[in-house]
Each structure stands twice: as structure tokens, then as C-alpha cells.
Amino acid sequence: MEGARCHFDLPLNVKTARDRQEVEARITILKGYINGDIEPIRLANKHLLGLLYYYIGQLDESYDTFKSILDEDPTNLNALANLAHVCRGILSTKEADEYEGIRNQVSAKADDLILIVARFKAEHAYALAFEIYHSVHELRRYHESNDMYDKCLTKTSGKSENQYARAAWMMCKIWNFKKLFNKNYLKEQHPSKNSKMYDDIMDLLLQIQKNVSKDSTLAALAWANFGYFFWKKPCMPSHKRGGDDLSGIEMPSNIKGTEMEKYYDDPKSCFERALKIRENKEVLELYGSWLLYKTDFDTAVNKFSRSIELDCSDSNYYSYCKRAECLLEKCQSAIAPDERIKATESSVDITDDLELALKDFELVVRVNPTAYSYRHLGQCFLLLSKGGKDKRIRAKALAAYQKGLACLDGKKDSYLHFKHAECLKELGEDTQARASMQRSVENQNPQTTFVEDIRTLMTWYIELCKDGSTENIPEAAFWYKMAFSKYKTETFKKMTLTMIRRDTDFFLKLFGCLWKDANPELAEFISDVLKDIEDLLSNSHLHQFLLSSRRTGSETSAIEIKHASAMRPRNKKGYDYDFFIVYSNRDENWVKFSLLYHLEIIRNFKGLIHIRDFKPGKTILENIEEAIRHSYKVILYITGNFTESDWCNHEAQTAISRALTKREKGSIIPIREGMTTVPNFLSNLSNICIEGVIPETDLEKLVQALDE
């Protein structure tokens, strides 16, 4: 990036956009941005617009866009370099050389070269942070972008004539910080990092306030962003709502003694002050978002509607999205949970609000299709379907969730899975609802405090076991154990104590099942919970716990697994099975409840596992050799239990022997759990490393390996 001469040299994610529609959607958005009144940001957006035009083959529009930048700023190095690139694309080499010559002259002789070069780098920083699509893997771009802004700000410090441009770049840096700050995992896993980021944001906002005109757009944006971050504080989890009291949190030291000190617990005054300076779209959006958080739905809708009045184009999709979100939450809060299925009988008429929300969300998914927007669209359709009674709209609700899951990182969006599960449950699809809720738990960020998904899942297992059945206890125990490894212990314990007091028998059976192979942390957790509910425990309860902890769990070995005869193999090589899984019996639950679900139920492979498919009457050795002979691939689930198992090592060595005999490359696929040491005889094979959950990218690699 240091050597980039123009935008076309930058590692922008437009180069990996999946299709033309994604780029065209961003062009629509940028057309709204290029009319802003902050000149450095307006020109930075024009560069992006010209770039995107070029990538979809609209070379004349690309040329005109870069040319319009030169009309405003004749010494703009990026415009000259980008124009030269476009001219070569249309084979106008003489004109390209002309622009390169002008660029060289500007670089050599310009009086204000420091500002020109800083602006050149700042425009690259802005482009680097621009999103063609949303991806958690792209967070590094925001850090790299801010590093570039820092260099620009350092180069231009101390020069009064550069203050306006510097303030604009500071605001861009704050926007990058905001995206990083709002990533829930960062706040809940690394609070110290977020506190440092918060202090940096406060410093930048104070500098902007100091160096720009008090009636400028940048001044209004500074006030609005003070309001936003005074609302958020350094430590607010994203799922908190307006009833949560966040006042009293220690004030950052760089705010103390400044004019802003009195506003730290009063975000509303910051937003009002910003609106008095300039009625700007971003100011209205930030104010409306705070009002939504405070559940003041009507006032929030008014703010977003005013933003839409200022710009009713598709480029203002964010205001449409937030207005629709307000209307949807207003409708949901107006109907009691047990009335949602029979919404038509409710005393509250929500039809008009729902139809406007639906119209807004349909615009949003057209312009910016994300898992987030499809999730809300699905919720709208569900309410309009009157609890699934209208089958046509019910189908649209389910289709919206599927489209959300198909978006980039959609399958990793735990809250999308959570809402999809709720939708399926309301429509009576209990089995599929449970599977979707399991995906929510599976994809939660470590140390999360959002426990509604595991709480709901346990409630559904309690329903399944209300007749005294223990058939589903091992499955429930598997997901409870996974949740324990992910959720913040204090929050998880609070949830468990609340639930155990309502259904003690279920949880004692659950704990008994977990106790058999609990690690020290889980065993200590269970002991602490049992101590806290000593007043509820009778002798019969303790007997139930001890009885559950002595069972082997083998009675549930194959009941929950789709029978192999119901499936057809996907491979085209004539094998009866797509894969045979080699694993330790101690890891049986993960294979049954996670891996097999992904491969057999979702991806329609036909697998072979010993607990279900080994034939009685044959020796174990005969079954192993037959399984390997009739399976296209062999998956080895390598854990500490695997390496200690003589049978697992024998099966693995038999599979390798077959692969060498038949010279079949790629027939063995190792999956390694965490930091498990791979046996020497497998060390030359590449493996997929997981931490209890197969990440979506690695799952795709596994699917590809099975299909090859």
C-alpha cells in the first residue's frame, strides 16, 4: 500500500466482490454520498465511485467521475493517476501520458506539497475502509486505514491552513473506530482495548470541536458523535436496551475538566445541540438510534423519517433500515408473546406500521442485502402471516431467513439463527427450530453475555422431557456444555440458577449426564450451582443426580441420528458411503450432534459411523475394514481421546494403508481439536483445526474435500 500510485493498486475488497450486483448496490449508495458538503470526504467518495464504475465496465462514467474531481481540485494526485489508469484501459495512451506528466509536475513543484501528499494518502485510507460487503475477516482494513490517517495527521500537524482537512480525516478515523467499537466480541472479550479506543475517540472529537467553525457540518457531527459514545460508554454490550442504567460509569480522564464533562450522562443534550447546528442525515440517524435504544419508538421514527425527507434516494438506505427496525420493535412490543401467533385477534392494530416496515426493509435488502436486514424482513413477514396462518406470507418469512443465511457470514450470525429458530417454533416446526437454535449457540462469540439462545434451547429440551423421558438428556447436555465453554460464567450461572429453580429434576438429570466426563472447570461450576440450591434438594433429587451420573449414555447412541438407509451418497465414484468417521467414543456427542448434522442433514452426504452402521455378527476388525473399503473418504476426528485409543489408531492406520495401496490422494481428512498433538504417522497430512465448532470457512473446505 505504501507504493500505491492510485486506487487501482490498493487491496480493496471490491476485487473479491462476488457479483456485479454487490458493486452496483454500492454505486447507488455512493451517488448519495458525493453531494455532501465536507469537501475532502466528498472527493474521496468520488474516487470510489469512479473506481466501481471501472470495475463493472462503465469506463466512460469512470472517466467523467475522475475528471470532475480535477475540476474541483486540479492538483489531486489520485485523480490524475486514476485518470491515467482509465485512459490506458480505453487505449488512450497519449492522454494517459499527459495526466502522468501533470502528476509529476505537481509532485515536484507544488507549494503546498505536504497537504497534497497527505490528501493523496487520506483518500487511500478512506477507500481501504469502504465496504463492498460486510465481513468479520475484514476488520484489519479499519486498523490499516487508521494507521494511514495517523501518518496524514502527523505530516500536517501545526499548520492552521490544514485544519479543515485534518478535522475531516479525524471524523473518518472515528467512523472506522465506530465499526471496530461496535463489534460485540471486542467489547466483551477485550474491554481494555475498547477503553483505549474510547479514549482515542474522545481525543479526536475534542480536537475537531476545537479546530472547526462552530456552525459547520463537522461541528454538528462532533456533537452527535459525542452523544453516541456518551450513550454507548466503553462497556455496553450491544444487546442492552433502554431500561439498563449505564450512568455512573467512570468518566474518561480526557473528558474531565472540559466543556463535555457535564454531558457525559446526558447524550440527549448532545444530539439536540447537533441538530441546532445542522440538520444532517448522520445527526438524525445517531439521534434516532439512541431513541430506539430508549424504546421511544414514535420519536425515533420521526427522526428517521426526517432523514428520509432530506434524502429519499436508495443511498439513504440506513435511515430506511432504522425506521423499519423502530416500527417492527414497536409492533412486537405492542403484542404479548403469547398473542403473536394469533395477531389478528390482538386488540392492537399493527398492520399499517408493519406494512411500512416491510416496504422499508424490502428497499434495504435490494440496496444492501445482509444477514441483518433479511433477519428483520423475516420477522416482518412472520407477524404479517398471522402466526403462519397465511401460508403465502409464511413462505416469504422462511425464504427471507434462508436468504440471510446465504449472505456472506450469514451462517455465522448467531442472532440470525436465533430469530430463525423463533420463527420456526412459532410456525410449529419444532425440530428445525431446535436445530437453528443450536446453530445460534454454536456461533456465539466467546465470553458473550447474550444467553437467550441457550436459555430458549434448554426450555425446549425441558418440554421434550416433561413426561419423564431421558432420551434427549445427552443431546441437551452436549449443547449446555458447549454454551458453558462460550458464555461469560457469571451470566451463565445466573441463567442456570433461574431455570433450575423452575425445573430442578431436568437439571439434575442434565448435571448427572455432564458429570461423567466433566472437565475441572465444568465440575466446579456444577458443584457451585448445587451448593446455591441446597434448599431445593431432597434425598430423591440427590438420588436422581447420582443415578444420572452413573449411566453410560449408550442408550441414546443411534436414536437421534438420521438412518443411513434414508440417504444416497453424493460421490460419483460408486462408493456406498461418502465418508467414514473415525473417532473416540468419548467424543461421540460432538460427532452426533454437530458434525453429522452439518454433513448429513444440511449438506446431504451419506456417512458411516460405527454406533449406527456397523453390522452385528461381524468382528470389529471386519467392520472397520469393510467401512473403509466402502467409503469414499475417511474423516479422522483427532482429540486427546483419539490419540489414547488403540482402536482409533488402528482404524487410521488401516485407512492410510488403503490409500497408499490404491494411490488415492485426499482420501483421508484429519480434523484436529484445539492443540491436540497429531500422531506421528499422520503428521504429513494437512488437517482442519477447530475449537469445538467447525468455522464456516473450514466447513466449506471439508465439504470441498469430500466432493473432490
| CA(first)-CA(last) distance | 37 Å
What's the tally of helices?
32
Largest beta sheet: what is the strand line-up?
A: 2-1-3-4-5
How would you characterize the largest beta sheet? Answer: 5 strands, parallel
Our estimate of the beta-strand percent is under 5%
> Which structural category fits the helices and strands?
mainly alpha
The portion of residues assigned to helices is 55-70%
- The oligomerization state is single chain
From the alpha-carbon coordinates, what is the Rg to the nearest angstrom? 29 Å
> What would the principal axes of the Cα set say about the shape?
globular
**Total beta strand runs:** 5
Low-confidence stretches: 341-345, 550-560
What is the arithmetic mean of pLDDT? 82
Protein name: TIR domain-containing protein
InterPro entries: TIR_dom, Toll_tir_struct_dom_sf, TPR-like_helical_dom_sf, TPR_rpt, TTC22
Pfam families: TIR_2 (PF13676)
Keywords: TPR repeat
